[in-house]
Amino acid sequence: MDGDTLYTIGALARRTGLTVKTIRFYSDTGIVPSTGRSPAGYRLYDISALARLDLVRTLRDLGLDLAVIRQVLDREISVPEVAAAHADALEVQIRTLRLRRAVLRAVAKRGSTPEEMDLMHKLAKLSDDERRRLVNDFIDDTFGGLDANPDFVDMMRTAMPGLPDDPEPEQVDAWVELAELTQDADFRAAVRRMAEYQANERAQGDTTGLHHDLTESVRDRVGHALDAGIDPASAEAAPNIDALTTRYAQVFGRADDTELRHWLLTRLEIANDPRAERYWHLLAVINGWPVPPSLAPVFAWFIEALRAGTEQ
Predict the structure, then answer these.
(1) Residues above pLDDT 70, as percent of the chain
(2) Is 191 helix (H, G, I), strand (E, B) or coil?
(3) Distance CA 304, CA 179 (A)
(4) By three-state DSSP, how is residue 33 classified?
(5) Disulfide check for 172: which of 9, 106, 242, 249 has CB 3.0–4.6 Å away?
(6) Using CA of residue 94, residue 95, residue 97, residue 101, what is the dihedral sign?
(7) CA atoms of 61 and 138, how far apart (whole Å)
């Protein structure tokens, strides 16, 4: 192409695919100034104007506004700088769109009312910091001011909801349910009772921390009893309860007697709120963790068997 060739607006329009009106606007605003005018007064543009128009069209197609385009053309900022900033902005837009899509799919699946949909959208678009703050406020309210089991409190604070950038509808649904659960006054009161119980136990010298091994012992022993169809109130349940109370006595340094069984029954009844297990289940769904099988049937059997034994 001849570098000395001059083009009219019409010729530029044909070469670039832009309208004459658009090119005239770019020319009037100084984004693509004309090189000169013909004897008849028509604007003329050189090869650099053609290249400039191509760049403007590309940047506009990428969504940049004219103010930024002017800065690029005037070399106030570089194309790589603009590209990086715009990519970041697009990333935010993409994340927002993905979140809206997940919310809409969750709404469609749940059959939500307009009010529920509004709540879901507001909760889903919270930032990670805002989500953590909401859960930390719940923990502060339920465990604050108490010398509860520090290992348990640390586990609560470590396990925060982290909704991914492209969440599944189930993850959005789980986050909304978790947020609602943490705001439920009755659930907060129940967790506060757990914290008070832990603090009271610590005041009496219990510094044993978490008890994952005990939980596994209960899961195995009671699981076998459930599989065998053993009635928790029957005599067949007694050997299982005896084995478990012996295990608890060893862990907590207590005598394996009737008092231990009453203490254990109280402990289990306070801790065995199905909403507490639901809390951890929802966190697993939100964060994409493996969801463990429910222990509710296991501890319900254990509690019923203990209660039957202590009432005899």
Answers:
(1) 91
(2) helix
(3) 32
(4) coil
(5) 106
(6) positive
(7) 46
For the segment 201-258, what is each residue's pLDDT rounded down to a tens digit? Answer: 999 999 888 899 999 999 999 999 999 999 999 999 999 999 999 999 999 999 999 9
Question: Is the predicted pLDDT of residue 1 greater than 60, yes or no?
Answer: no
Query: Any idea of the CA torsion for 8, 9, 13, 16, to the nearest 10 degrees?
Result: 70
Contact at 8 Å (CB) between 139 and 244? no
Whether the Cβ atoms of residue 169 and residue 102 lie closer than 8 Å to each other: yes
CB 12 within 8 A of CB 2: no
- First-residue to last-residue Cα distance in the chain: 103
- Share above pLDDT 90 across residues of the chain, in percent, rounded to a whole number: 51
Looking at residue 39, its pLDDT comes to 86
Question: Cβ contacts of residue 135 below 8 Å, gap of 6+?
Answer: 160, 161, 178, 182
Here the tokens at position 89 are 């902005």
Q: How far apart are CA 207 and CA 213, in angstroms?
A: 16
Q: How much is the mean pLDDT over the chain?
A: 87
Tell me the residue length of the chain: 312
Tokens of 36: 């000169």
Note whether 22 and 12 are within 8 A (CB).
no
d(CA 166, CA 198): 39
Q: Has residue 82 got a pLDDT over 70?
A: no
